[in-house]
Amino acid sequence: MDRYYVRKPRNKEYRPSKEELLKMYERGLTQKEIAEQIGWTQSGISMLTKRYDINIRETLPWTEKEEELLSKFYLKRSKKQLIVLLPDRTWNAIKLKALKLNLARPKEEYQNSEEVKKKLRKLSQQSTISVKFNKKKDISYVLGVLDGDGYTNKRSTVGLETKNKKFAKKFASKLKDIGLNSNMKLREEKNHWMVWGCSTQFVDWYDSLTDNKKIRLLLKSNIAWQYITGMYDSDGALHPCGCPQICGYNLRKNKFISKILDSLNIQNTIHKDKVWIKANSRKEFFDNVHSVIDYRNPKKKR
Question: For 17-37, b where at least 16 C-beta lie within 10 A, e where not — what string?
Answer without folding.
Answer: eeeebbebbeeebebeebbee
